[in-house]
Design a protein that fits this description.
- This protein is α/β, with parallel strands linked by helices.
- Helix 3 packs across helix 12, helix 8 packs across helix 9 and helix 8 crosses helix 12.
- It has 13 helices and eleven strands.
- The strands form three sheets. Strands 1-11-8-7-5-6 form a six-stranded parallel β-sheet, with helices on both faces.
- The protein is 45% helix and 13% strand.
Length: 368
Amino acid sequence: MATLRALRKLCRYSHHQACSFHLSSSRQEAVIISGRKLARQIRNEARDDVEEWVAAGNRRPHLSVVLVGDNPASHSYVLNKTRAAAEVAFYKRIYYIYTFLLDAYICLLYHCSLLFSVGISSETMLKPSSISEEELFDLIEKLNSDHRVDGLLVQLPLPDHIDERRICNAVCPGKDVDGFHVVNVGRMCLDQSTMLPATPWGVWEIIKRTGIQTLGKNVVVAGRSKNVGMPIAMLLHTDGRHERPGGDATVTISHRYTPKEQLRQHTQIADIIVAAAGIPNLITADMIKEGAAVIDVGINRILDPLTGKNRLVGDVDFEGVRKKASYITPVPGGVGPMTVAMLMKNTIKAAKNLILTPPQRVRMAASS
């Protein structure tokens, strides 16, 4: 009888263990990384940095943004950038140079300006898409020479008749908060402290602050743009012991001529996937392995068949991929807010670089 009771107990224990194993082996959906939460954290750090800077007798940093044309994606970012400037606590001034934009957009800018009674001093200069390259070049030169302007950003993309590379290189490297000047790009590639492009830096901060390991990991960056894809790959693969530490990952970059099946072969073994190609639903669930971390940089405006209205989506099939990934960023609310936060950090860095003497700049670069 005792033997029978022991067997029953053993069976119940075995059944419990089998159930426990089954439950533990079933995956939870991916952790959705809140770019807004991380960005708020960074803005709080920036606010403290600014207040300490001002308390030491320095003036508040000032950011000038030049917006050309009426690209809706650019407007979304500019609105967020100016809104973030208020949260970091700078003073805000918006100059309406032309009223060629839609009334709704003007109203949004106006409501944003109400938030800027305190905070990172900022001005948004609106220029029509008909502006000539020389006129834009002259405006940049004027802002370069203005000692009150610490950071200068020309929002991309620009109209087709304007050479973006020439305009990016026209911005003074010390004021280039977008990190697009050839000097800043070169320093980044040499693992030296510099103005890092805001979006790639935001991706890097998401990975670091979330605790996603990069050392020796396989990474796929889908997209090779000089402003996003290439810098992300650079930050992830470079040496972690250098002046500007990198991620020590093994990075594969894909582009428009990479066959879809070949891309799939790379993504299926990748520990981290960064989608920055500007193609909706480029990365689908069948293309990733279980537990991969997926960072979606894409911003695409598509027509929602249910509502008949435009909506923003990324490069990743979010609902499908989240069932297999360990981490995933949403669109919107993922990389976008981080881009704005890193821009604020670059603006503060620019303000400090303009005031520090050359020896102090060297020490600051070595300690950053």
